[in-house]
Amino acid sequence: MAFLELASIHHTYFTEESAKVVLENISADIEEGEFISFIGPSGCGKTTLLSIIAGLIQPTCGEASITGLPPQKRKNAIGYMLQQDYLFPWKTIEENVLIGLKINGSCTQEARERCLQLLEEIGLSGVGSLFPRQLSGGMRQRAALVRTLSTDPLVLLLDEPFSALDYQTKLKLEDLVCKTIKDLSKTALLVTHDIGEAIAMSDRIFLFAANPGRLAKTFDIPEELRILEPFEARQHPLFSQLFQTIWKELQLLEDQFGKSNETPS
C-alpha cells in the first residue's frame, strides 16, 4: 500500500446551466518522504487536486487516502502552505506559528518548544515577539512554513508558495524549504508553474494536461540532481537537459489545450 494514494479521481464543477469536468481519472501512488511537483497549463486542476487531497473538496468520483484512510480520518494529516502567508497581522510571529497547536488542543510545552526551535533553525531567531508587518516577505513565508509544520502533518501541500517573492529570495527559500522538509522526512506536494523550481526540488514531477485535467506524464528526477540542494541542482548539466524536455512537453500540451478551446468559424 502506498503512503498517499490517489485512486481514479474525477471531479466536476456543477452550476445550474452547466457541468465542467476539471479532473479525469487521476491515479498515482506516492511514497512516504517523496517530494512531488505538479505542473501543467493553467486550468488543468492542480489546485483542485490539492484541495481534494486536503479533504476540503469531496471528489465526484474516486478518493485520496493516506495509508488507506481518507485525510479527514487522519489526525494532523495535512499541512497547507499557500502563495500568501496569511499571518494574522494583530498577532506576534510566535502567536501565529503556534495557532495550529492551540486550535487542535495540543499546544503543550514540549510542542511549543519544538516549534520555537524550528523558528531558530529556519533563520528566524529572535523574531517571536515581532508582528508580521515588521518582517520581509521571505521571512513571513518562513514563519508560515513553521506554522504549517507545527502540528507535525503527515503530508505537506505547497500551492505556489514562492511565486510572490523576488527571484533571489525565492532561490534561497527553495534551498531552505527543501532542506527542512527532507530533515523532517515529510511527504510534500508542490503546485508550481516554474519548471526549474519543480526540477530543483522534486523527486518526481507530474505533468498535467488540461480540458479536462489529467496526468499526462511522470518525470523521475535523476539521482545526480536529487542529492543536491536546489540552487546547486540548477547548475548541473542534467538540469538544462531535463528543463528542455519538460518545456517541450508542456508547450505541446498548451498548444493542444489552445486548439481545443478555439471557437469554430
How would you describe this protein?
The chain has 265 residues and is of the alpha/beta class. It has a domain at 1-77 and 186-265: P-loop containing nucleotide triphosphate hydrolases (Rossmann fold). Helices cover 38% and strands 23% of the residues. Helix 7 (195-201) packs across helix 10 (237-260). The radius of gyration is 19 Å and the shape is globular. The mean pLDDT is 90.
Q: Which percent range describes the beta-strand content? A: 15-25%
Helix content: 25-40%
Mean pLDDT, as a whole number? Answer: 90
Biggest sheet strand order reads 5-6-7-3-8-9
Indicate the radius of gyration in whole angstroms: 19 Å
Observed structural traits:
265 residues; alpha/beta; six-stranded mixed sheet; three-stranded antiparallel sheet; globular
